[in-house]
Amino acid sequence: MNVSQIIELGAAILILFGSIMAVISALGIIRLPDVYTRSHAATKSSTLAVLLTLSGAFVYFWVSEGFISVRLLLGIVFVFLTAPVAGHLITRAAYRSKVKLTDNSSDDALKAILFPDDK
Q1: Is 32 left (phi over 0), alpha (psi -120 to 50) or beta?
Q2: CA-to-CA distance for 64 and 52, rounded, in angstroms?
Q3: What is 84-115 written as a DSSP string?
Q4: Helix axes 46-65, 3-31, angle to 10 degrees
């Protein structure tokens, strides 16, 4: 195997790990009990899955075709910046709309600060 084939194999491994993380994310969204933990699974692991997949595609095209894709780089940056912020805003909106936490949650530190009238 030459260096090009080894790097292509590394790119394929990145894409494989990205698809495994996507499956883990989907399982987390299905199995977790409330909107807050589901949002955590959806944003963290899905962001990692997309970043690994796009990084693998970028490396593959760079090595095999000598093509540096600005679109893939912009996609990586865009997903890295927007997905966690969107997840945070969705979770924040759910909390301010008083979506109930799961019964397994032990502490709600924000309740006394944001909703002092509710006891």
Answers
A1: beta
A2: 18
A3: HHHHHHHHHHHHHTTPPPPTT----TTHHHH-
A4: 160
Q: Which amino acid is at 100?
A: K
DSSP state of 33: S
* Interatomic CA distance for residues 74 and 80, integer angstroms: 10
pLDDT (tens digit per residue) in 9-36: 999 999 999 999 999 999 999 999 989 8
Q: What is the pTM assigned to this prediction? A: 0.83
31-74 per-position pLDDT tens digit: 999 898 899 888 999 899 999 999 999 999 999 988 899 999 99
| Angle, helices 46-65/70-96, rounded to nearest 10 degrees | 180
Asked whether the predicted pLDDT for residue 119 surpasses 70, the reply is: no
**Interatomic CA distance for residues 98 and 45, integer angstroms:** 25
Rounded Cα distance, 70 and 19, in Å: 22
- Please give the Cα distance from 24 to 44 (Å, whole number): 11
